[in-house]
Amino acid sequence: MDWTARLAPSLDQFAALAEAALAALPEPFAALSAEVGIRIEDFATEEVLDSLGIQDPFELTGLYQGVDLSRRSVLDSGVQPSMVFLYRRPILDEWCERGDVALDDLIRHVLVHEIGHHFGLSDDDIHRIEDDA
């Protein structure tokens, strides 16, 4: 295949892949994730990286921001909508380095990981579930 005319997917194309992955979630996960917004950026902001103690912006492929379902209350008011950030450049970098996964599968994997946080799962919980799958 001739790659000289190929370009990395744009932010919009990346968003379309993420939206397709979100739309393919099985029930009841899809209904419980319907309110979660998806935002695609090339990299996390310096503030986000600093708050997480991450120096290399290529180390963060995704981030969940919001109040997870396990901590919500009917008394909550003014809560910002939940958001999943997917960071295009680190995901593309991982995809190129790995070479053993389709890009849409990797995007789905990162998205599902971040959706796991929406359900109140920790990174350790998510990794344990992935290892058992």
Q: What is this structure's SSE topology?
A:
Elements: H1 11-23, H2 29-33, E1 37-41, H3 46-52, E2 62-65, E3 83-87, H4 88-98, H5 103-118, H6 123-132
Parallel strand pairs: 1-3
Antiparallel strand pairs: 2-3
InterPro entries: Zincin_1, Zincin_1_sf
Protein name: Neutral zinc metallopeptidase
Pfam families: Zincin_1
Write structural notes for this entry.
The chain is globular and about 55 Å long. It is 47% helix and 11% strand. By secondary structure, the protein is mostly helical. A three-stranded mixed beta sheet has the order 1-3-2. It contains six helices and three strands; from the N terminus they run H-H-E-H-E-E-H-H-H. The mean pLDDT is 87. Helix 1 crosses helix 5 (103-118). It has a single domain (11-67, 82-132), classed as Zincin-like (2-Layer Sandwich). It has helices spanning 11-23, 29-33, 46-52, 88-98, 103-118, 123-132; strands at residues 37-41, 62-65, 83-87.
State the order of secondary-structure elements, H for helix, E for strand. Answer: HHEHEEHHH
Please outline the major beta sheet.
3 strands, mixed
Helix content: 40-55%
Residue share in β-strands: 5-15%
* Spatial strand sequence of the major β-sheet: 1-3-2
Proper CATH architecture: 2-Layer Sandwich
InterPro entries: Zincin_1, Zincin_1_sf
Organism: Caulobacter henricii
Protein name: Neutral zinc metallopeptidase
